């Protein structure tokens, strides 16, 4: 039996889970056409063949868990070993010729509650050599290979940011720019369902149509969501803003490469342009607000090429959360684009001011939690954090005292916004991080900066207490998108380095990346194309090699959501029931609750990987 890939990819989609039923197996070949209401593929044949190097499925397992990509020569180098021994174990670090270059004994750590494994930790940080294809042998058992290289993260940063080009809507993807990923433009006027060039609202929402072409497909589906686009584009712009010179020198695989605007901002502009199109036009009811999302009227199949989508596209009702995401992202965009395109920066600032005023006039327009047919609900009934974030970005950009007053009047301004990982539904930390690092005249800015450092110290303490060194230890199991939550915690630690210059924060970020790249209970790198055993079957409609060999796996540098104790999809629920938190993951395209890809998760990977590359 093949369980249905019900294309629900966020917590907001959980209301419809009860509708899932078991269905008979579907025999390959899978097609690039459509599907039933659960996303099951139908039909036969595919038009476009893609070339993609597929990682072997059978990688020998080893109890010695390392960062399968590499360690910085002057950074922390730790591994975790699974062993029932209660005594220290001998270890040897060997270079690619088999020569022992360092040795010592492991530190027993006992039972790790997040994995249920008895563990040891090996610390070989004192070795400062460089080279490729090292292995770590512990008690006679060897790890997968890794490098010791100051440039270990440079390509990962490029790939994580280049992920967005093949996610673009409304443009043909050029195979010369993204080899193996060429496809026709999706959701343009000539698309089967009429595309995004003249989209009506859901019945009863509005009586106009909007051109909302462009932007990024949110995840493995064809929806485009303002509340997820906001945090995603903000983190891309922040990766530029924290280190402009490094960002200007970083070439991405984008059509705009070589222009006067840095590549990362050119990519961000593709999304910002879409977000501005989602604003309710002047003269209409709710003018200045932003529509929550644009998506298909019903779920499309798995796989479905964006250009082959036949569903009617619909604008969903405006929401306060979406409007504030637009205000925050556009305000940040106004200041980062000002040196390159003043006219565009002025447009973004006007959009931001209009959106913020509209949100103030309509502060309780919440997206419905039941609006999950054909798209994720992305519901959020607490928008105090979005108000704080938007006010912070507008204040930083304009210096306007009223926006500053809104920042300091917010109950979140003196609250601990780092008591949990930030995400699309919890955005106050985005405002706090920018207030701490981007020049402004906030009266209590020193306290704001210290709050970031305090948050980073807690995450470092959490890492020290984990056998696998991850900056994440929630009670009751791992959450949806645990990998992104870990990376966002590392972004707080990295920001503390920018504030203080203290090496422990830089080393903390580098050490935290080890978990993402293989030092974990599954010996799994969660980034496609990075590591001997790397995720490659993330849930997606057009990166669907697992279902149709003619289609590609996701591009190099694509982050998988990661272990999720809730196991909302039927594939994971059937296979992993009762799993320990770190083990609640499977690299299967049908496991949307553990193995989806999204624009916001890759934004966290991009921020952290470029931070490490820039500070190597």
UniProtKB/TrEMBL annotation:
Task: List its EC numbers.
Answer: 3.2.1.4
Do you know which InterPro entries this protein is assigned to? Answer: 6-hairpin_glycosidase_sf (IPR008928), 6hp_glycosidase-like_sf (IPR012341), Cellulase_Ig-like (IPR004197), Glyco_hydro_9 (IPR001701), Glyco_hydro_9_Asp/Glu_AS (IPR033126), Glyco_hydro_9_His_AS (IPR018221), Ig-like_fold (IPR013783), Ig_E-set (IPR014756)
Query: CDD domains given for it?
Result: E_set_Cellulase_N
Entries under SUPFAM superfamilies matching the protein: E set domains, Six-hairpin glycosidases
Enzyme class, broadest EC rank: hydrolase
> Gene3D superfamilies annotated for this entry?
1.50.10.10, Immunoglobulins
Q: Which family does it belong to?
A: Belongs to the glycosyl hydrolase 9 (cellulase E) family.
The species this protein was found in: Dactylosporangium salmoneum
Q: Which reaction does it catalyse?
A: Endohydrolysis of (1->4)-beta-D-glucosidic linkages in cellulose, lichenin and cereal beta-D-glucans
Cite the Glycoside hydrolase family domain residue spans from the record. 153-608
Q: What is the recorded name of this protein?
A: Endoglucanase
Residue numbers annotated as active site? 539, 587, 596
Residues spanning the membrane: 12-32
Q: Domain of life of the organism in this record? A: Bacteria
Q: Which Pfam families match?
A: CelD_N, Glyco_hydro_9
Q: Which residues does the UniProt record annotate as the domain Cellulase Ig-like?
A: 62-142
Keywords recorded for this protein, A-Z: Carbohydrate metabolism, Cellulose degradation, Glycosidase, Hydrolase, Membrane, Polysaccharide degradation, Transmembrane, Transmembrane helix
């Amino acid at each position: 039996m093949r369980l249905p890939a019900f294309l629900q990819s966020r917590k907001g989609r959980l209301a419809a889970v009860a509708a899932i039923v078991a269905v008979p197996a579907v025999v390959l070949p899978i097609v690039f056409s459509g599907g039933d209401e659960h996303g099951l593929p139908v039909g036969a044949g595919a038009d476009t063949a893609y070339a993609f190097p597929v990682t072997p499925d059978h990688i020998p397992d080893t109890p010695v868990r390392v960062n399968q990509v590499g360690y910085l020569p002057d950074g922390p180098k730790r591994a975790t070993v699974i062993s029932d021994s209660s005594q220290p174990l001998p270890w040897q670090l060997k270079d690619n010729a088999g020569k022992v270059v360092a040795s010592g004994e492991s530190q027993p750590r006992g039972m790790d509650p997040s994995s249920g494994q008895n563990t040891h930790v090996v610390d070989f940080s004192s070795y400062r050599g460089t080279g490729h294809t090292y292995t770590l042998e512990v008690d006679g058992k060897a790890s997968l290979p890794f490098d010791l290289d100051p440039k270990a993260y440079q390509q990962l940063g490029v790939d994580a940011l280049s992920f967005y080009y093949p996610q673009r809507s409304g443009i043909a993807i050029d195979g010369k720019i993204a080899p193996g990923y060429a496809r026709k433009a999706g959701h343009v006027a000539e698309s089967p369902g009429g595309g995004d060039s003249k989209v009506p609202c859901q019945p009863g929402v509005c009586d106009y149509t909007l051109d909302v072409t462009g932007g990024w497909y949110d995840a493995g589906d064809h929806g485009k969501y303002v509340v997820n686009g906001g945090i995603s584009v903000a983190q891309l712009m922040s990766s530029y803003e924290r280190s402009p010179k490094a960002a200007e020198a970083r070439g991405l695989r984008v059509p705009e490469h070589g222009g006067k605007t840095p590549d990362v901002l050119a990519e961000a502009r593709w999304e910002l342009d879409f977000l501005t199109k989602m604003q309710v036009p002047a003269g209409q009811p709710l003018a200045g607000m932003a529509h929550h999302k644009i998506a298909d009227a019903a779920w499309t199949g798995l796989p479905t090429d964006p250009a082959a989508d036949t569903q009617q596209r619909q604008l969903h009702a405006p929401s306060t959360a979406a409007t504030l995401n637009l205000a925050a992202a556009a305000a940040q965009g106004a200041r980062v684009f000002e040196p390159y395109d003043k006219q565009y920066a002025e447009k973004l600032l006007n959009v931001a001011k209009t959106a913020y005023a509209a949100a103030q006039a309509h502060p309780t327009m919440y997206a419905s939690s039941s609006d999950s047919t054909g798209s994720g609900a992305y519901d959020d009934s607490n928008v105090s954090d979005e108000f704080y974030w938007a006010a912070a970005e507008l204040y930083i950009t304009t210096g306007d005292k009223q926006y500053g007053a809104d920042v300091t009047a917010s109950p979140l301004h003196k609250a601990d916004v780092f008591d949990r990982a930030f995400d699309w539904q919890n955005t106050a930390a985005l405002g706090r991080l920018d207030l701490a690092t981007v020049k402004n005249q906030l009266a209590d800015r020193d306290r704001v900066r210290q709050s970031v450092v305090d948050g980073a110290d807690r995450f470092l303490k959490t890492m020290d207490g984990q056998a696998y060194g991850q900056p994440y230890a929630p009670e009751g199991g791992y959450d949806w998108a645990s990998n992104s939550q870990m990376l966002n915690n590392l972004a707080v630690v990295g920001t503390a380095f920018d504030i203080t210059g203290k090496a422990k924060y830089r080393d903390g970020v580098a050490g935290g990346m080890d978990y993402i790249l293989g030092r974990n209970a599954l010996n799994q790198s969660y980034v496609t194309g990075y590591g001997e055993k790397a995720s490659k079957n993330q849930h997606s409609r057009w990166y669907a090699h697992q279902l149709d060999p003619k289609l590609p796996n996701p591009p190099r540098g694509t982050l998988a959501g990661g272990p999720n104790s809730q196991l909302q999809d039927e594939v994971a629920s059937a296979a992993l029931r009762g799993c320990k938190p770190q083990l609640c993951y499977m690299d299967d395209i049908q496991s949307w609750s553990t193995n989806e890809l999204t624009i916001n998760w890759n934004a966290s990977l991009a921020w952290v990987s470029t931070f490490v590359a820039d500070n190597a």
